[in-house]
Design goal:
Blueprint (H helix, E strand, L loop, with lengths): L9 E2 L7 E5 L7 E4 L4 E2 L4 E6 L6 H13 L4 E5 L2 E4 L2 H9 L3 H5 L9 H11 L8 E8 L5 E13 L2 E10 L1 H23 L3 E5 L5 E4 L1 H7 L3 H4 L10 H17 L1 E9 L5 E10 L5 E7 L1 H30 L3 E6 L4 E4 L1 H7 L3 H5 L9 H16 L4 E9 L5 E12 L5 E10 L1 H23 L3 E6 L4 E4 L1 H7 L3 H4 L10 H13 L8 E6 L5 E12 L5 E10 L1 H43 L5 H27 L8 E4 H10 L7 E5 L3 E5 L4 H14 L5 E9 L2 E8 L22 H10 L4 E4 L8 E6 L4 E3 L2
Parallel strand pairs: 27-29
Antiparallel strand pairs: 1-4, 2-3, 2-5, 6-7, 8-9, 9-10, 11-12, 11-15, 13-14, 14-15, 16-17, 16-20, 18-19, 19-20, 21-22, 21-25, 23-24, 24-25, 26-28, 28-33, 29-30, 30-32, 31-32
Helix pairs in contact: 17-18, 19-20, 20-21
């Protein structure tokens, strides 16, 4: 027989064969007591009890007879103990009379009136020839009724027939039966209404009882599971674990395990099973659906994993951050800091731990820092920002931007302060430089005599300087917000728009446009444009610097006209001079005819040399006047060399050339430089039979190296001076002048006796590789 009950502060005594299952306060397992008096504290649960087997009727009669003759007939049995008194004493106490009074009364008077009619036939002589047992109601002296058990028979005492009856007060036993029935009903109610599924197995391990929650959880009926082993409802991998736990259940008397059960719809449900083994080998199990718990556990695991990863990320950020990070208590004492903060302050970690945070800050800024700590402690602020100066250990200052946040504990109380320290020393320096640059830019734009115009990417004017307004005659309001191209003369507008687009890809250099002044006059301007870009390289604005070249163009025109006239005059003068020299040469030749005077012949030779010199000088002046007349242009180095070779009388001289595919920016007469080098080798190099030219790269420069295998040059100091040499002395002098126009230079560094070695150095701006 099983029963559940709640007992508080009582001691229950039963026979030595009783077993008690008690769940103690605050525990999930159960104590199993045998033959002991369990004390149930308030709030503890008496889970179950097994009472030893009740004796049969015959065994009960023999026991009652034995106890009667021994004077220990049990009358009342209760939870507080066992008492044994005879019936006469019981009735005497109940009726408050004497035993003598009882002996004088008829036995039917001791039975309740409503029971006497039923009892009378039993007391007839014919019925008491055998042992008779009956349960009826007794009558006390005060008229109250009570249930009693009567065991009666006829006996012979001293050859006299007598009536022997054993009376047992059944009040407590009836009360116990009522309590037992109530307990069983309570047990059944608890099991059927339990929030946990319940299953009972017999000693063979088969299910013999389940509650409705079990059927609901498993989506089945009780008939679907009765007679089956619990393991048959589990997933295969869980069956083995449960079988492995059975020895623990036998040893401990109870055990708990988690498993997955197959439900009626084919799905599985995770459960936690608490099993209790009973003395007869059966077991009862309390089963909890832990789907939600598993979900929470999974969520908790995910959150713990996320927290772990978050902590790892935070630690990685903390240690590897480009900014200093420090946590301090509410008094400003460091708790933790990263390596970057150590670098910013210049103190060692051990030194920092001995300082307050404000002690690292410049005194002028520390006052504000202390005020902020006070506000944090008072709870008036929970975060702040400030710029301040840290004083490094070596005394130097570091500008920093401080971001601070108040950190609270689990109860929301202020605990510590997190401070992020961004070293902005370089930024402050750059800001100062930027401010100075902007100030200088503003002053330059204001002071520059040229027009400075800035537009957006649509060409709308957003800035003009005073010079632009002064030259054009417009007011600032008349130009700001208007298109720049509306001020360009119609004949130049299309080209200006085109060039503005091309500017996005490459620099165009100076361009000339006619701009319309407020008075309608069109003036010629030389415009240099550029693109302003953001940090990502995206174009944001256009800027133009325009110089009024109207007067310059007029002057250039006058200079060209004057130069044309001078050239005409020079040509006429040179032509007339050459004619006179030809005539003079003719007279010299006539004087030589028939001359026999040696001194006279010597004078004629001197005159002839002077005539030849004057003719060469005239030719040289014709070449020199052409230098710088034409604009420098990009020319192929290989083609320049080929032209110089074609115009030279090389005869059997071998020419070697190893030139890169490059173009040089030079005067159109640059080929004469190489022509002069070849001519000097042929005229003054001695026995030259090989000349060569090659290119080399060095430190961003292009070197053009010319060599021959002649006698070389000993006098290098005066080599490029005007008048030096055996001829008119203008060849190398003119060569250097031609190269100097575009920044090129020429030197000779050969070894005398081993040929010449001329180097022409071309700067990076004056050569480009041909693709």
């Amino acid at each position: 027989m099983w029963q559940r009950d709640m007992l508080e502060g009582e001691s229950m005594r039963e026979s030595r064969g009783d077993l008690w299952w008690i769940r103690r306060k605050g525990r999930r397992d159960y104590d199993v007591l045998r033959g002991q008096d369990p004390v149930i504290e308030p709030g503890e649960l008496l889970v179950g009890k097994q009472t030893r087997r009740e004796p049969t009727a015959e065994e009960q009669v023999r026991l009652e007879q034995s106890r009667a003759f021994m004077g220990t007939q049990p009358i009342i049995t209760g939870q507080t103990g066992h008492m044994a008194i005879d019936y006469a004493t019981l009735l005497a106490k109940g009726c408050r009379g004497l035993q003598q009074e009882l002996r004088e009364r008829h036995i039917l008077e001791l039975i309740a009136p409503r029971e006497r009619a039923r009892m009378r036939p039993i007391l007839d002589d014919g019925h008491l020839s055998r042992l008779e047992e009956v349960t009826t109601l007794g009558l006390r002296r005060d008229g109250s009724e009570f249930p009693m058990h009567v065991l009666m028979t006829e006996v012979e005492i001293s050859s006299r027939r007598a009536f022997l009856a054993f009376f047992t007060d059944m009040s407590d036993r009836f009360a116990m039966g009522s309590m037992l029935k109530e307990s069983e009903e309570r047990y059944r109610t608890i099991i059927e209404n339990s929030p946990l599924a319940f299953a009972l197995t017999d000693p063979s391990g088969k299910i013999v009882e389940v509650n409705p929650i079990f059927c609901s959880m498993m989506m089945c009926t009780s008939e679907d599971v009765l007679g089956r082993r619990p393991q048959d409802l589990m997933q295969p991998e869980d069956r083995h674990r449960v079988d492995d736990h059975l020895p623990l259940l036998h040893d401990r008397g109870s055990d708990s395990i988690q498993a997955r059960l197959f439900r009626g719809d084919g799905t599985s449900v995770p459960v936690s099973v608490f099993a209790i083994e009973l003395p007869d080998g059966s077991a009862m199990a309390f089963i909890e659906d832990i789907t939600e718990r598993k979900s929470w556990e999974s969520m908790l695991c995910e959150r713990e994993e996320a927290l772990r990863k978050s902590m790892q990320k935070f630690q990685a950020i903390f240690e590897g951050a480009a900014v200093g990070i420090i946590t301090v208590d509410l008094d400003g004492r460091p708790i933790d800091f990263n390596d970057r903060f150590v670098q910013i302050t210049g103190y060692s970690p051990s030194e920092l731990r001995g300082l307050r945070h404000e002690e690292c800050i410049h005194p002028d800024d520390a006052v504000k820092c202390r005020d902020i700590y006070e506000a944090l402690r008072a709870g008036t602020v929970d975060r702040f920002e400030m710029e301040g100066r840290y004083v490094r250990k070596d005394g130097t200052l570091v500008w920093a931007h401080l971001f601070s946040s108040l950190l609270v504990d689990s109860e929301g109380r202020p605990e510590k302060v997190l401070i992020i320290v961004d070293d902005i020393t370089d930024r402050k320096r750059m800001n100062d430089a930027l401010r100075e640059s902007e100030e200088m830019y503003t002053k330059l734009v204001s002071a520059i005599p040229d027009m400075v115009i800035r537009t957006d990417m649509k060409g709308t004017i957003v800035l003009v300087n005073e010079a632009a307004l002064e030259v054009s005659g417009y007011s600032r309001e008349e130009v700001l917000g208007h298109s720049l191209f509306s001020f360009v003369a119609e004949e130049d507008r299309g080209r200006c728009l085109n060039n503005a687009v091309l500017m996005l890809d490459r620099a165009l250099g100076p361009q000339e446009y006619r701009l319309i002044m407020r008075n309608g006059e069109k003036l010629l301007f030389e415009a240099n444009g550029d693109v302003l870009r953001d940090a990502d390289g995206e174009p944001t604005e256009l800027v133009f610097v325009c110089r009024n070249i109207t007067e310059r163009r007029q002057m250039e025109q006058r200079l060209r006209e004057a130069d044309r006239r001078l050239r005409i005059l020079d040509g006429i003068t040179r032509h007339d001079t050459l004619n006179k020299l030809v005539a003079l040469q003719g007279y010299i030749d006539l004087e030589r005819m028939g001359n026999t005077d040696a001194k006279r012949a010597e004078r004629l030779d001197s005159m002839e040399r002077n005539v030849r010199f004057l003719r060469e000088q005239a030719d040289a002046t014709r070449e020199y006047q052409e230098i710088g007349v034409g604009r420098p242009e990009w020319q192929s180095l290989r083609e320049i060399w080929a032209m110089a070779v074609r115009n030279a009388e090389l005869d059997e001289v071998m020419v070697e050339a190893d030139l890169e595919e490059v173009e040089v920016l030079a005067d159109p007469l640059v080929y004469k430089v190489f022509h002069n080098l070849i001519d000097n080798s042929l005229k003054h190099g001695g026995k030259v039979d090989r000349i060569g030219v090659r290119t080399e790269r060095s430190a961003g420069y292009l070197r053009i190296v010319y060599t021959d295998n002649g006698e070389g040059i000993a006098d290098k100091e005066n080599l490029f001076k005007r008048g030096h040499g055996t001829d008119h002395g203008l060849g190398l002098f003119l060569s250097r002048e031609i190269l100097d126009i575009t920044g090129m230079g020429i030197t000779e560094n050969g070894v005398p006796g081993m040929g010449v070695r001329f180097e022409i150095v071309v700067p990076a701006s004056s050569f480009r590789t041909v693709q």
